[in-house]
Design a protein that fits this description.
Strand content: 25-35%
Order of helices and strands: EHEHE
Structural class: alpha+beta
Distance between the termini: 10 Å
Radius of gyration: 11 Å
Number of strands: 3
Number of helices: 2
Strand order of the largest sheet: 2-1-3
Shape: globular
Largest sheet: 3 strands, antiparallel
Helix content: 25-40%
């Protein structure tokens, strides 16, 4: 299955609690931190919810 690299590019300060939880659930801790996940429908949905805070690239 394809993988996706997710990098947090913006801060979660002054963001709704659900967006903070999604960032944490993706495994992102701070700005410019990157993680690699399998590209599943669940992960894609989480990325769509916080796409204004992260950048993604297919691996």
């Amino acid at each position: 299955m394809a993988q996706v690299k997710i990098t947090q590019t913006k801060s979660v300060i002054d963001r709704p609690e659900n967006q903070k939880r999604i960032i944490k659930a993706l495994g992102l801790r701070k700005m410019n931190h990157s993680v690699v996940h399998e590209s599943t429908p669940q992960i894609e949905g989480m990325i769509r919810k916080v796409n204004h805070l992260v950048t993604t690239e297919k691996i």
